[in-house]
Amino acid sequence: MGSIAERLAEVRERAHVSYCRVAGRPGEPRIVCVTKTQPLPRILEAIDAGATEIGENYLQEAIRKDVFALRESHGVTVRYVGRPQSNKYNAILRLFDAVDSADRRLLDHLDSIEDRGDLRACTFLLEVNAGEESQKGGLTVPEIRELAATGTPWLHEISGLMAVVPLQATMQVRTILYRSVSELFHELVSDLGSSQVTLLSMGTSDDYELAIEHGSNMIRIGTGIFGARSPSRV
Ligand SMILES: *Cc1c(COP(=O)(O)O)cnc(C)c1O
C-alpha cells in the first residue's frame, strides 16, 4: 500500500514512463489529485508530497473542507470534476479555478454571462461521454463533432476535453475509446487553434498509463494516491 507520498511518487514515475513511450511528446502529463471523500489532513499530505492540482466532485463537500483556502496557503489549483447541477453553476464558477466536467448547459450559461468580474473559473474542459452511457453527463464524440461542424458559440470557451469511460470497460474497449477521444481532440486543436485547445484529461487510477499512451496530458487520480474510498462522504 504505502503512504500517500509513496503512492503519488509511484503514479508520477509510472506516468513518466508511459509518457516516454509517446511519439511527439506533447508535454509531461499533469496529475490532478481527486480528493472527494478525503479529509483535509490527507489532502495536505498529498500537497506536501508535491501535488499541485486537486479535483473535487461535490460543491458542498469542497466548501465544507475549505479546499479553496489551499490556493492561498499552498498555491494549488482547485478543479471541479463532478456533475454540474444548474442551481450551483454560479457558485462553481465563482469558487473553482477550472471546470473539467463542463457540459453543454453550463457552457451555454457561461456564454450568457455578461459581467464575469466575480467569476474565478477560467478553464473549461468539455466532458466527453466516451462510452455513450445514458446515465452519464457530457456529450458523445459524434455529438461534439456535430456541434463543432455547426459552430456552437461556446466552443471558443473550451480549453480541451475530459473523457470519462465506463467503469467496467476492458482495456481493449478503453483503448478504442481513448483513441477516438484523442482523434476528436486533435480535430478541435486544428479547428480552434493550438493556443486555445491544450488540455486532454483522460485516465484515472485504473488506466492512466493507457490514456497517456493515447495522448492524455492530464490524469485524474483518486484511489491510486489515497487508497480505496470509504463509501460515506466526509
Ligand atoms: C472520482 C473520479 C476520478 C478518480 O478516480 P479513481 O479511480 O479514484 O482514480 C477521476 N475522475 C472523475 C471525474 C472522478 O469523479
Q: Could you state the order of secondary-structure elements as H and E?
A: HEHEHHEHEHEHEHEHEH
Show unreliable segments.
none
> So, CATH architecture?
Alpha-Beta Barrel
The CATH class name reads: Alpha Beta
Give an account of the 3D structure.
- This protein has 234 residues and is α/β, with parallel strands linked by helices.
- The protein has a single domain, classed as Alpha-Beta Barrel (TIM Barrel).
- Helices cover 41% and strands 16% of the residues.
- It contains 10 helices and 8 strands.
- The chain has helices spanning 4-20, 40-48, 59-65, 69-74, 89-95, 104-112, 141-150, 171-192, 208-213, 223-226; strands spanning 30-34, 53-56, 77-80, 98-102, 123-129, 160-164, 199-201, 218-221.
- The chain has an 8-stranded parallel beta sheet.
- α7 runs parallel beside α8.
- The protein starts with a helix and ends in an 8-residue tail after the last helix.
- The mean pLDDT is 95.
- Bound molecules: pyridoxal-5'-phosphate (PLP).
Question: What secondary-structure arrangement, pairings included, does this model have?
Answer:
Layout: H1 4-20, E1 30-34, H2 40-48, E2 53-56, H3 59-65, H4 69-74, E3 77-80, H5 89-95, E4 98-102, H6 104-112, E5 123-129, H7 141-150, E6 160-164, H8 171-192, E7 199-201, H9 208-213, E8 218-221, H10 223-226
Parallel strand pairs: 1-2, 1-8, 2-3, 3-4, 4-5, 5-6, 6-7
Bound molecules: pyridoxal-5'-phosphate.
Pyridoxal-5'-phosphate is lined by residues 34, 36, 57, 81, 164, 204-206, 220-224.
